[in-house]
């Protein structure tokens, strides 16, 4: 395993992660819109067909109805939320790694990297839960055609007016259930692939751009393989009318499995996986480039 050249700096992780997050949104938002629309589309009445037959159909219908702009619906919320969220996410990972090191030269084991990744998932939920709730509501209102919210801020105001801070944070437990194990998988698989792709005797910092893109893209796929079932439940729960699921996610799970079978927990799988690779490849490349720049700018920070 390559020796770590640079001591871990949670602060540098914070800034580089923020830049990686912006790269991720630009690369991945169109497929995120499609994913949410597929996950939340209503069950067709007898004799009617589904609103969207699948990923490609949803893509075509969105473009035909709303133009390319339709794919970027609700992007303001993730851009405002994702930069700080990824900053906090990478900061949490950096902190998790640092807390487990006895000396700056310690190379962490894969279970330790998984634990550091899980810590980052706890860190991000505070920002992630309300951001996701707003994003999902804006994405489905565009599909149903009734304009309830004028934009992200209006959505927050209305939710707060209706049910206080609990309304804004609806779905937090599900966001935690999704993000803690998925973040552990995300960072551990990225570090594992980086080790795999680093030639003997070379350091991680010398990895080529295609290698970083591949490791980042695959980490995104591993992350979502773990995250999709709780993500489907979360999208359903966060966009449901008030009081529809009194017992929280258990009710959502029961209803989904009863009506649509266990396979429904992997709804939107194609859209998620199509998006996961380019979005996370862009994210980790942005992170690594920003990290190199910060190490050059402030080597001792």
TrEMBL record:
Record key words, sorted: Membrane, Mitochondrion, Repeat, Transmembrane, Transmembrane helix, Transport
Solcar repeat ranges, renumbered to this chain: 8-99, 108-196, 207-293
Membrane-topology annotation of the record: Multi-pass membrane protein
Presence of the UniProt keyword Mitochondrion in the record: yes
Record-linked SUPFAM superfamilies: Mitochondrial carrier
Gene Ontology cellular component list: mitochondrial membrane
Subcellular location: Mitochondrion membrane
InterPro entries: MCP_dom_sf (IPR023395), MCP_transmembrane (IPR018108), Mitochondrial_Carrier (IPR050567)
Entry similarity comment: Belongs to the mitochondrial carrier (TC 2.A.29) family.
Biological role stated in the UniProt entry: Mediates the electroneutral exchange of acylcarnitines (O-acyl-(R)-carnitine or L-acylcarnitine) of different acyl chain lengths (ranging from O-acetyl-(R)-carnitine to long-chain O-acyl-(R)-carnitines) with free carnitine ((R)-carnitine or L-carnitine) across the mitochondrial inner membrane, via a ping-pong mechanism. Key player in the mitochondrial oxidation pathway, it translocates the fatty acids in the form of acylcarnitines into the mitochondrial matrix, where the carnitine palmitoyltransferase 2 (CPT-2) activates them to undergo fatty acid beta-oxidation.
Name of the featured protein: Mitochondrial carnitine/acylcarnitine carrier protein
Organism field: Fundulus heteroclitus
């Amino acid at each position: 395993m390559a020796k770590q050249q640079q001591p871990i700096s949670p602060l540098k992780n914070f800034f580089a992660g923020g830049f990686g997050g912006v790269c991720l949104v630009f690369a991945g938002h169109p497929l995120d819109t499609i994913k949410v629309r597929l996950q939340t589309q209503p069950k067709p009445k007898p004799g009617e067909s589904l609103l969207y037959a699948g990923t490609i159909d949803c893509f075509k219908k969105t473009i035909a109805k709303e133009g390319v702009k339709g794919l970027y619906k609700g992007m303001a919320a993730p851009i405002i939320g994702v930069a700080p969220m990824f900053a906090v996410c990478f900061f949490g990972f950096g902190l998790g790694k640092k807390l487990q090191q006895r000396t700056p030269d310690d190379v962490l084991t894969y279970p330790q990297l998984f634990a550091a990744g899980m810590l980052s998932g706890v860190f991000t939920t505070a920002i992630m839960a309300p951001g996701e709730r707003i994003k999902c509501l804006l994405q489905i209102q565009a599909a149903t055609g009734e304009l309830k919210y004028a934009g992200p801020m209006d959505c927050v105001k209305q939710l707060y007016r209706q049910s206080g801070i609990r309304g804004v944070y609806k779905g937090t437990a599900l966001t935690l259930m999704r993000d803690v194990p998925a973040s552990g998988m995300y960072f551990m698989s990225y570090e594992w692939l980086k080790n795999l792709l680093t030639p003997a005797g070379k350091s991680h910092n010398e990895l080529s751009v295609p290698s970083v893109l591949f490791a980042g893209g695959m980490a995104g796929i591993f992350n979502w393989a773990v995250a999709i079932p709780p993500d489907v439940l979360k999208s359903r729960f966060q966009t449901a009318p008030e009081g529809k699921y009194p017992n929280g996610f258990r009710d959502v799970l029961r209803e989904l499995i009863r009506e649509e079978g266990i396979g429904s927990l992997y709804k939107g799988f194609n859209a998620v996986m199509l998006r996961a690779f380019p979005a996370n490849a862009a994210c980790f490349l942005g992170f690594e480039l920003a990290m190199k720049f910060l190490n050059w700018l402030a080597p001792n920070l």
